[in-house]
Write a structure and sequence with these properties.
single chain; alpha+beta; Sulfite Oxidase, Chain A, domain 2; five-stranded antiparallel beta sheet; signal; Molybdopterin-binding protein
């Protein structure tokens, strides 16, 4: 019994430590790489988005708008989003190697009405093991293929001529 207790306690502490040390990295074609802890993200403005699961049940996610995160990294938006900045994109990397792509233009409210958040809760609870600590939620997409699990990095790039 004692060994089982210590194993469970060790496993919980390891998970808590891994979550505490987690940093979302924002890198690529920006002036300075940015790393945000879960605590940093929790202090940013919160936004909600909904998405249906494979069974058709609607879930409510809460997190930080991708736009707010990109603004903290001084990524061009609004009036700055013209000319060569129109060929810039956001590449989302996940812990399992999965990657998805968004154009900066489709994320900008001056061009499109699209809600994309980096979520840390679903239905008022932390994301389940294997799905978090962060997940991209692209609200309104017909398939959830870009609503990726275990997000680790946001990379800004530009199409080269």
């Amino acid at each position: 019994m004692g060994k089982l207790f210590f194993f469970i306690l060790f496993s919980f502490c390891s998970l808590a430590s891994a979550q505490t040390g987690f940093k979302l990295k924002i890198s690529g074609e920006i002036t300075q790489t940015l790393e945000l802890s879960l605590s940093d993200l929790s202090k940013m403005p919160r936004k909600n988005a909904t998405m249906k699961d494979k069974e058709g049940k609607v879930h409510s996610y809460t997190g930080v708008s991708v736009l707010d995160i990109l603004a903290a990294a001084k990524v061009p938006s609004g009036k700055e989003l013209h000319g060569e900045n129109m060929s810039k994109y956001l590449l989302v990397k996940c812990a399992d190697g999965y990657q998805v792509l968004f154009s900066l233009a489709e994320l900008d409210p001056s061009i499109a009405d699209k809600t994309v958040i980096v979520a840390d809760t679903v239905d008022g609870k932390p994301l389940p093991d294997g799905k978090g600590p962060l997940r991209i939620i692209a609200e309104g997409e017909k398939k959830p293929a870009r609503s990726s699990y275990q997000v680790t990095e946001l990379i800004i790039g530009a199409v080269k001529k």
